[in-house]
Amino acid sequence: MIGFLKYPGTWLDHTGDDSHQIQVLLYQAESDLVLASLALMLFQQQRGERVAGLDQAEWAARSEKRMVLEKEVKAELGLRDWDYSRQDEVRNEVSVRMVEAEAAEGKLPRSYQHQLPFLHAKSFLFALDGVRKTLLSLKRIGSSAAASDIALGILAAGVPDLAGVRDSTAHADERSQGKARGKALPNVPIDGFGIHAPGGGAIVISGLHGDVFHCTVEDGRLAGVAVNEGSLGTAFQAVQALLDALPWKGDSRIVPDA
């Protein structure tokens, strides 16, 4: 999805000392929207290229390659083919050589491939939260406070758990210990995102259910942010509302332009 912002004018119609500060923050919000758009594109592309199982021919080729490497490693270690006394060492060295050879051909290990959707989902999450934080900064400036408040309301209504999911993702080390801000997480029943734990006790650090990235947040709930056009569209709508509520002068412009 490529979203567009319409600046009602070329410059802010405001001569106060904070005019430049507001303009810089508007560019930051625009930049984060671009990052979120790119992350969404990559996330959706990766979901369309799910890691498939090996077919019979690939499985046979890998097995043959592993056997050849095993003979090679054993020879280097001075072991005969039937000597399994150092099999852990041999197996590990074979794995290293296979992974490095495939990486040289541009093939990622399957465990890396599995993480790619999470990488792009988190990039989307942090970019969207960057928009939220910029709006909060604008709210602290008197000349843009009212306009920013409108935008924050739109974002909170459309992506209500953005801040909580972002915070838990940034503090995954603490959540993995069942804590938030040094205190134990509340024990909350969970029934959602494919998880049913009526007695609570389940902590999710990083999950994907369809296109929803989810995790356990500070109040013990399992909360999520949809990595899709709806969330991105809400962020664009929020920033557009901000722009529309500010005073401008000069010709209007669209970004990105051709």
Q: How would you sum up this structure, described in words?
A:
The model has no long low-confidence stretch (mean pLDDT 93). 55% of the residues lie in helices and 13% in strands. With 258 residues, the chain is α+β, with helices and mostly antiparallel strands. Helix 1 (19-47) packs antiparallel against helix 4 and helix 4 (110-139) crosses helix 6 (162-170). The longest helix has 30 residues, at 110-139. The protein has helices at residues 19-47, 56-76, 87-104, 110-139, 145-158, 162-170, 172-175, 229-245, and strands spanning 5-7, 11-12, 179-180, 183-184, 190-192, 195-197, 207-209, 212-216, 222-226, 248-249, 253-255. The strands form five sheets. It has a three-stranded antiparallel sheet.
Tags for this entry?
single chain; 258 residues; 8 helices; 55% helix; 13% strand
- SSE order, one letter for each helix or strand: EEHHHHHHHEEEEEEEHEE
Number of strands: 11
Order of strands side by side in the largest beta sheet? Answer: 7-8-9
Q: Tell me what portion of residues adopts beta-strand conformation.
A: 5-15%
Q: How many alpha or pi helices? A: 8
Distance between the termini: 16 Å
Q: Major beta sheet, specifics?
A: 3 strands, antiparallel
**What shape does the CA trace take?**
elongated
The radius of gyration is 25 Å
Specify the helix fraction band. 55-70%
Mean pLDDT: 93
What low-confidence regions span 5 or more consecutive residues with pLDDT below 50? none
The helix-and-strand class reads: alpha+beta
